[in-house]
From TrEMBL:
Biased composition annotated in UniProt, kind: Basic and acidic residues: 8-49
Protein's organism: Hapsidospora chrysogenum (strain ATCC 11550 / CBS 779.69 / DSM 880 / IAM 14645 / JCM 23072 / IMI 49137)
Protein name: DUF7719 domain-containing protein
Source taxonomy: Eukaryota, Fungi, Dikarya, Ascomycota, Pezizomycotina
Domain DUF7719: 160-227
Compositionally biased intervals (Acidic residues): 56-73
Pfam annotation, one family: DUF7719
PANTHER family on file: DEACETYLASE-LIKE PROTEIN, YALI0B21296P
Key words, A-Z: Membrane, Transmembrane, Transmembrane helix
Length: 228
């Protein structure tokens, strides 16, 4: 059978599309004839209407508004002090886990066998210290004043200054002991210092955090210390 050659574009006649409407009833026409849209609206109003009779849609709207107002007026589940305590526990437990990790890593670095009982004891003691530091120093809605008597406009700056000093001191001292002290002193002091350094940087705003890290970097460079 001979293969037909494809028709060229110039040989194809152009035609206008059929713009005539449908000759039979459409679904939209049938729905209008049976008043399906009206029935749907009526059904929706019946669903929204409060049970047990009443004044209709207006009463339902009023009840909804009253319920929303009652929800807004409900007191919070926890008091600000309870939220502050729970937040402190959550943060300090995470810090204690980080301390445990640093403790194990330092012992592995010096080739020491990990004594898990001692690690857990040191972690528990560190958690207690972290809690005592975190509770008064961490900003919270229930703790808006770090220094009583100081105007509120200076409180935020004071908080940032405290964490800036903590970050710079902890970072610089950690660099110092890692390069000059023996391994026993490093294993004992490095984990808590590392956790406090991380926490203070997290509490700082970006500019303050970068500045505190720059101080630690300057201390590293000026003292001729090494990172390893």
């Amino acid at each position: 059978m001979a293969r037909k050659e494809p028709r060229k574009a110039k040989d194809i006649k152009l035609k206008q599309p059929d713009r005539s409407g449908p000759t039979e009833k459409t679904l939209l026409d049938i729905a209008r004839e049976r008043d399906l849209f009206g029935q749907a609206d009526e059904r929706e109003r019946e669903i929204k209407r409060p049970r047990g009779g009443g004044g209709g849609d207006d009463d339902g709207e009023e009840e909804e508004e009253e319920e929303e107002e009652e929800e807004k007026e409900e007191p919070p589940v926890l008091s600000p002090r309870a939220e502050r305590i729970l937040e402190a526990l959550l943060w300090t437990v995470s810090m204690a886990m980080l301390h445990l990790t640093f403790d194990v890593l330092v012992q592995h670095q010096y080739g020491e066998e990990v004594n898990w009982r001692s690690v857990y004891i040191r972690t528990g003691r560190a958690w207690a210290v972290f809690l005592l530091l975190f509770y008064p120093l961490h900003p919270h809605d229930a703790n808006t004043r770090l220094l009583p008597g100081l105007p509120m406009r200076y409180q935020k700056m004071l908080w940032q200054a405290v964490f800036f000093v903590m970050s710079a001191v902890c970072g610089s001292y950690l660099i110092h002991i890692s390069n000059t002290y023996g391994y026993l002193a490093v294993m004992k002091q490095a984990p808590p210092l590392g956790v406090l350094w991380v926490w203070s940087v997290i509490e700082l705003e970006l500019a303050w955090a970068v500045a505190s890290l720059a101080v630690a970097g300057g201390f590293l460079w000026h003292g001729g210390y090494k990172l390893y």
